[in-house]
Write a structure and sequence with these properties.
Length: about 425
């Protein structure tokens, strides 16, 4: 039975790939050197990948490019980050909102989307957001197109590498350090990434890692993510509030931050720690807060609708992640002039934080070190102010105005090819 299922998958995948590999239409060839398609897991939810994609889309649109975003699915009426970039067309491949698909199309979609994606590897957790239905819709949207196509995570990159639409130059964008991808996913990368026209990574450490994995078989570029201007005032460095935000998952390390906070709470009962986010570990975090007797000094709140205004009410930002690709929220906090405390996790913080100049850098997963650093920055307002000023200067180096020309040069190079 398993063998027959595998044969069926290969047959369907072959049909999809043949369907998409048709020459670009005449109307697509006109302007192809200024056409960009960005493929996201979803464009409607929260996340640094989405923010960075919107920054790039807005930047290229302003420079005369026709920009389109393909979103694997849509499950809400309004995007988390508010309006999409002006002039950028956003298309969902699977509208999951209740009542969004009616009639015969709705019946067909319901049946077909029960089948897993035949183009995206199941080893990428984003595979839960894709199905045979999204495969078909993706093929429809890319068939006969011409321009440059960007994937934004391993599974999407692998889908696009497999598709190899003849009119599209394809860039894979890696948002996570290589060491955190599973062995099967890395094997797929080694097999299919050489079909990409370019691979973009966020840090120098990752460029070296991917070079070793791929043995120079694909052109590698290091282009960091960009921080968008956050509205509102700069951080209040006299505020007795420490701020942390992110999904409540193992990666973000909030269960390391809570015990690290306990010493500060004991020595400075007038200070508060705010945790912003949501996720399946919330009940565990609440249990830790109770275990350490921190109910009066730690609050757990949902994601901030306006993170800029939210950060402005705090003086210190803490990044307690076990690993990152490139921590965009750290740069956002720096752009607000906050005092920064961060684990030196792989990868990103060491590229951004210069210890005791624009923030405090703590050895990876060193809870006692994190506790000491929080105490240090809480007890020294002058240190916060000095590092906050330097942090703002650092954040300017990662604006789209500073980084965008690197993307523009790469896209122009591929367009000319």
């Amino acid at each position: 039975m398993g063998r027959l299922k595998g044969i069926a998958v290969r047959i369907v995948r072959g049909v999809l790939l043949r369907a998409v590999r048709v020459p670009p239409r005449d109307e697509q060839l006109a302007g192809a050197d200024k056409r960009l398609i960005i493929c996201l897991w979803t464009a409607w939810n929260m996340g640094g990948t989405i923010r960075a994609a919107f920054n790039l889309a807005e930047y290229m649109q302003a420079r005369g490019w026709e920009v389109e975003i393909l979103s694997g699915y849509r499950d809400r009426d309004e995007p988390f980050f508010g309006a999409f970039p002006a002039g950028v067309r956003v298309i969902d491949l699977d509208d999951r909102r209740k009542g969004a698909n009616r009639g015969l199309r709705g019946i067909v979609r319901t049946v077909v989307r029960k089948r897993p994606s035949h183009l995206m590897p199941l080893t990428d957790r984003a595979a839960t957001g894709f199905s045979l239905w999204t495969d078909i819709q993706l093929v429809r949207r890319l068939r006969g197109r011409a321009g440059i196509l960007i994937g934004t995570r391993p599974g999407v990159n692998l889908m696009l590498a497999r598709i190899q639409a003849p009119g599209l130059r394809t860039i894979g964008l890696e948002q996570m350090n290589l060491s955190k991808h599973g062995r099967k996913l890395r094997r797929s990368m080694r097999a299919h990434y050489p079909k990409l026209d370019a691979l973009v990574v966020l840090t120098e450490q990752d460029r070296e890692a991917y070079h070793r994995l791929l043995d120079g078989s694909v052109p590698l570029h290091r282009i960091p993510n960009t921080v968008r201007p956050l509205p509102g005032a700069k951080a209040d460095l006299a505020a007795r509030t420490v701020y942390a935000a992110g999904r409540f998952r193992y990666q973000k390390g909030f269960e390391l931050l809570i015990p690290a906070w306990a010493e500060t709470a004991k020595a400075h009962p007038d200070w508060r720690l705010r945790l912003r986010g949501r996720g399946h570990l919330e009940s565990r975090f609440r249990g830790l807060i109770e275990q350490y007797g921190l109910e009066d000094s730690v609050t757990i709140e949902g994601p901030a609708e306006d993170i800029g205004a939210d950060m402005a009410e705090a003086s210190v930002f803490v990044l307690s992640s076990r690993f990152e690709g490139f921590p965009l929220i750290l740069l956002e906090a720096m752009s607000k002039g906050m005092g920064i405390v961060s684990f030196d996790c792989p990868t990103g913080p060491a590229d951004i934080v210069d210890d005791h100049r624009n923030g405090l850098l703590v050895p990876h997963e060193d809870v006692e070190g994190l506790s000491r650093a929080i105490r240090e920055i809480v007890e020294d307002e002058e240190l916060r102010r000095r590092m906050g000023t330097a942090a703002v200067d650092t954040a300017r180096e990662y604006t789209i105005e500073a980084i965008g020309p690197q993307w523009e040069a790469l896209l122009d190079e591929l367009a000319r090819a």
